[in-house]
UniProtKB/TrEMBL annotation:
Pathway: Amine and polyamine biosynthesis; putrescine biosynthesis via L-ornithine pathway; putrescine from L-ornithine: step 1/1
Cofactor(s) recorded in Swiss-Prot or TrEMBL: pyridoxal 5'-phosphate
Catalytic activity line of the entry: L-ornithine + H(+) = putrescine + CO2
Protein family membership: Belongs to the Orn/Lys/Arg decarboxylase class-II family.
InterPro entries: Ala_racemase/Decarboxylase_C, De-COase2_N, De-COase2_pyr-phos_BS, Orn/DAP/Arg_de-COase, Orn_de-COase, PLP-binding_barrel
Protein's UniProt name: ornithine decarboxylase
Annotated Orn/DAP/Arg decarboxylase 2 N-terminal domain residues: 26-263
Assigned keywords, A-Z: Lyase, Pyridoxal phosphate
PANTHER family found in the cross-reference section: ARGININE/DIAMINOPIMELATE/ORNITHINE DECARBOXYLASE (PTHR11482), ORNITHINE DECARBOXYLASE 1-RELATED (PTHR11482:SF6)
Any one GO cellular component localisation term in the record: cytoplasm
Organism: Camelimonas lactis
Active-site residues per Swiss-Prot or TrEMBL entry: C330
The keyword Lyase belongs to this UniProt entry's keyword annotation: yes
GO MF annotations, alphabetized: ornithine decarboxylase activity
Length: 382
């Protein structure tokens, strides 16, 4: 917790759980990414935290933006980004949204099948636009990631040249390849096999007379939760070495899409203990119910994939015991950590405050609906 956040929490008016994010930490993270891969453009993944203050500061610093919807495109533009610094990175887009993005000046689009290429080609043709670019996302196994991504996005690498050739034949620029090695990726070498696949797609397209220009290295850069993670510089060195290994001296243009790694460690959540109970007199494990749960912003505790550091104002009091953590809603799925309980002070009481650290990413955005009437998570950017 930064001193700025500590002061804010000390002086804030009590109004339920909240996420507080320190912009200075985000600034520092951006500079580290820009330094670690100096020849790579940074496309911040807006979905991680779309707070206007975050987007404006990053736009001022020169960041580009990875967006998943027209609404995110408009957020990036409102923050000061120009359209040439925006990628429509979702492979699942309505044709009218593609048309709107093109009208706003966006020219860079992700695809993973020929049907998606057709939508972009039709929208571009209708608008008499001849400079739209597409990159094809290929499947990646995500081994080593704490939040692996599914088969929902991407195609088999063997299929990618056909998709890109189809784009080329439709009058679009077949621009490059993308992949994602899985969110919260702790293995700095995870990009090696993915870049080998990307190089194969480059060669296959080259044999068809189609020269690709760009590799989108995706996100996956971690933030610190309970375990230490490698420094951004370690990822940069590993990625550069893999690029040299698989592309030789003809290294393509590259972009990265950090989200969690950009804002995760910049924010924390303050939450209140609502109830402490046991299910039986003989039960050695207590249930600690908080005023925030999966539906209030902690969706990434699903399957206990993301384990946040949790601090108590009673940590200094000594003895701790295992606790199951749960949210306040009337839904039995709203249990955060049961398979592997958390150790919390035995003296913890109703009304105590807990601090959930590393909560700057994917918390306010997952808390979008007032389920059971509990309001969405309040967010403060300082």
């Amino acid at each position: 917790m930064t001193q700025r956040i500590r002061e804010f929490l000390r002086n804030r008016r009590e109004d339920g759980p909240c996420m507080v994010l320190d912009l200075e930490v985000v600034r520092d993270n951006y500079m580290k990414f820009a330094s670690a891969l100096p020849d790579t453009r940074v496309f911040y993944a807006v979905k991680a935290n779309p707070a206007p203050e975050v987007l404006h500061m990053l736009a001022t610093l020169g960041s580009c933006f990875d967006t998943a919807s027209v609404q995110e495109i408009e957020m990036a533009l409102a923050a000061g980004a120009t359209a040439d610094r925006i990628s429509f990175g979702n492979t699942i887009k309505k044709e009218r949204d593609i048309a709107r993005a093109l009208a706003l000046g966006v020219r860079l689009f992700a695809v993973d099948c020929q049907a998606e290429v057709d939508k972009i080609a039709r929208a571009a043709s209708a608008a008499d636009i001849d400079d739209a670019k597409v990159f094809c996302r290929v499947l990646c196994d995500g081994a080593g990631a704490e939040w692996p991504l599914s088969r929902k996005f991407g195609c088999d690498p063997q299929m990618a040249p056909d998709v890109l050739e189809h784009a080329y034949r439709q009058g679009l620029e077949a621009y490059g390849v993308s992949f994602h090695v899985g969110s919260q990726q702790g293995n700095t070498e995870a990009w090696d096999s993915a870049l080998a696949m990307a190089a194969d797609v480059f060669r296959a397209c080259g044999e068809r007379g189609i020269i690709l220009s760009m590799v989108n290295l995706g996100g996956g850069f971690p933030t610190k939760y309970l375990k230490d993670v490698p420094a951004v510089e370690a990822y940069g060195n590993s990625i550069f070495n893999a690029l040299r290994r698989h592309f030789g001296n003809r290294i393509p243009e590259t972009i990265i899409e950090p989200g969690r790694g950009m804002v995760g460690n910049a924010g924390l959540i303050e939450t209140e203990v609502v109830l402490v109970s046991k299910k039986s007199e003989a039960d050695e494990v207590r249930w600690v119910y908080l005023d925030i749960g999966k539906f209030g912003g902690l969706a990434e505790t699903m399957d206990e994939s993301i384990r946040y550091p949790i601090r108590s104002e009673r940590d200094h009091e000594g003895e701790k015991a295992p606790c199951i953590l749960a949210g306040p809603t009337c839904d039995s799925a709203d249990v955060l950590y049961e398979k592997q309980p958390y150790m919390l002070p035995v003296s913890i009481e109703i009304g105590d405050k807990l601090l959930i650290e590393g909560a700057g990413a994917y918390t306010t955005t997952y808390s979008a609906v007032a389920f059971n009437g509990f309001p969405p998570l309040k967010s403060y950017v300082i």
